[in-house]
Amino acid sequence: MAAIEPGHPVLALAHNLGRRLALTAEIQRFRLAEEQVESSRRVTELIETIKRKQKELVHAKHYEKTAYIRQLEQELEQIHHELDHLPIVREYQQSQVEMNELLQTLQRVVADSVSTRLDVEVGQDPGGGGCGSGGPCGCS
Questions:
Q1: For residues 40 and 66, is the Cβ–Cβ distance under 8 A?
Q2: 48: Cβ–Cβ under 8 A, 6 or more apart, which residues?
Q3: Are 11 and 4 in contact (CB under 8 A)?
């Protein structure tokens, strides 16, 4: 597949679309939630604790310390639960879902528009699956 040359009109349209997407409510909400999560001292503390406990768990498994493994797994589960139930984390996760849905919808619209105009089904080889040579495989 050949690369699109710089300055191609399609690239200009894509850049314009990207700028417009950045202004949508879904993307703005995601960025705000992301900033809040990244600047939260509590989130940072919990993530650091999770990383430390995961390292401890690796060592405990290496040395086959069964009781300590169970204890660490329980502690990790509790920390993950606390992290997942922080309001700013829940908001971040929800905004991420909404942003992904927007981007997937956009991808489907573009793919459907292109495939309709090219008479090609999305996700299939435009050549119909054969080599096109009409040779020994019998395709044409």
A1: no
A2: none
A3: yes
Tell me which residue has tokens 């405990």: 60
104-125 confidence digits (pLDDT tens): 999 999 998 888 777 655 555 5
Cα distance between residue 96 and residue 93, in whole Å: 5
Residue 54: is it exposed, middle or buried by C-beta count within 10 angstroms (0-12/13-18/19+)? exposed
The CATH code of the domain that includes 27 is: 1.20.1500.10
Q: How many domains would you assign to the chain?
A: 1
Question: Rounded to whole angstroms, what are the CA distances from 30 to 16, 47, 51, 140?
Answer: 20, 20, 25, 49
For residue 76, give the amino acid letter. Answer: L
Question: In a 3-state reduction of DSSP, which class is residue 32?
Answer: helix
Q: Is the pTM of this model over 0.85?
A: no
- Give the pLDDT score at 100: 95
93/101 Cα distance (integer angstroms): 12
Query: Which domain, by its residues, includes 84?
Result: 9-118
